[in-house]
Design a protein that fits this description.
Distance between the termini: 60 Å
CATH architecture of the largest domain: 3-Layer(aba) Sandwich
Oligomer: single chain
CATH class of the largest domain: Alpha Beta
Largest sheet: 6 strands, antiparallel
Shape: elongated
């Protein structure tokens, strides 16, 4: 969806009007009205809000009232500020349900957004102890390392570094670019099918390069994922370290009912 600004400001006044004689503070009313308009879709994602001064004048409230309401919604993740540009309605984060192994491209299509990939680095790198252990290789061996920027509807979503075992060092980059999927490339070139994986997730602050690639501030968190994927024979096929934009991505677990306690006498 393209960035748009509701014009005139009267359109916002109709949605956000504040009752100044009500006992509820004006900033609370404004926050509540703005939140409702966002959640119902009356104000769409990527919409730019009017300048605080203009909105305050149109609503007949102080600029501090508008600032307090906006600050609360920025804190709650419904709005975000873009340096030098203004305040925008944040897109709802993309949600991955962890119940199966999928490539980024497959996951993207299942979630209903257009995936994209930019190959940032390709290199043969010497394994550090952590990556060597994950791949089941000796420290100091070399392997193929791919660093890619993954996008969703042309917005940067994740930076991923995939380290591959030695037998895949001849991976065709032309085929990778053509298929736009590492899993599909491994399957077509080497007959490898990714059947299972173990994934861990932590939260941390982004590196300087991640800030630049993901369009993040220094204090905006990323979700750091580590995944070891296994092929149809149970062998390690890849080790991936990813940093996902914390405001555009979230993970969900589908949990089934717990097993009833067993009768100790049976």
């Amino acid at each position: 969806m393209s960035i748009q600004t509701l014009e005139p400001v009267d359109a916002f006044v109709r949605l956000l009007a504040v009752e100044r004689t009500a006992p509820t503070p004006a900033y609370v009313q404004l926050k509540r009205n703005l939140e409702r308009a966002i959640r119902t879709g009356e104000i769409e994602s990527d919409t730019a809000l009017p300048a605080e001064r203009h909105l305050a004048e149109a609503l007949g409230v102080s600029r501090m009232t508008v600032r307090r309401a906006v600050d609360l919604l920025v804190r709650d993740g419904l709005l975000h500020r873009r340096h030098g540009s203004g305040t925008y309605v944040r897109r709802a984060p993309l949600e991955q349900v962890l119940d199966r192994v999928q490539s980024f491209s497959m996951e993207s299509h299942a979630l209903g957004f257009k995936p994209g990939t930019r190959l940032l680095e390709v290199q043969e790198s010497t394994l550090d102890p952590h990556v060597a252990l994950a791949l089941g290789l000796e420290e100091g061996q070399t392997t193929l390392s791919l660093l890619r920027l993954r996008t969703a509807d042309d917005l940067p979503l994740a930076v991923q570094r995939a380290s591959l075992p030695l037998q895949y060092a001849s991976l065709s980059l032309d085929l990778l670019r053509s298929l736009d999927s590492l899993y599909a490339t491994l399957q077509q070139q080497f007959g490898v099918e990714i059947r299972s994986a173990r994934q861990t997730v932590t939260a941390r602050l982004p590196t300087q390069r991640e800030q630049r690639w993901l369009e993040l501030g220094a204090h905006e968190p990323v979700l750091a994922l580590e995944r070891i994927s296994y092929d149809q024979a149970g062998n390690v096929a890849e080790y991936v370290q990813s940093a996902y934009h914390g405001g555009r991505y979230r993970m969900a677990l589908d949990l089934g009912p717990s097993e009833p306690p067993k009768d100790p006498e049976t």
